[in-house]
Amino acid sequence: MATSEKATFAAGCFWGVEADFRKVDGVLDAQVGYIGGSVERPTYQQVCTDSTGHAEAVEVVFDPKRVSYERLLAIFFAMHDPTQKNRQGPDVGSQYRSAVFYHDEAQRSAAAAKISELSKSRAIATTLEPAAPFWRAEEYHQQYHAKHGGSCNI
Ligand code: MHO
Predict the structure, then answer these.
(1) Binding site membership of 50 for ligand 1 (Cβ less than 6 Å)
(2) Closest residue to atom 3 of ligand 1, CA basis
């Protein structure tokens, strides 16, 4: 088993998503960025307009011996409301969509299984998308909560 793997999730404003994943045991690193759109090197300004197709996302590097991908999926679904389509609380637009960007077939099938399990009790809006180029966001967005304190949805 490799010593580290990547997982990429979108769950609304990426500030809080990064902070939550950084607290997880076995998560080695995390960065915020944009994924799943059509423009190269998008800026926050561009992504904000909801015209590039990108989602605000977090790329997590984890040690699979310490935390499983399934556990990261469970944490992801618990940290946001996956029933909201193209929004998360006050933040509205496809850039705030709930999405799992899978890096391989094992991740795709684990995420698909989790989505179908959750779908038994409520309508899940989470999209399952292949990992595409991940564009690291501007430095001031990295570890935003750690730098500024506070939480999201403001
Ligand atoms: N409602 C938040 C969203 C920021 S997030 C990086 C704000 O504008 O403060 O999309």
Answers:
(1) no
(2) 13
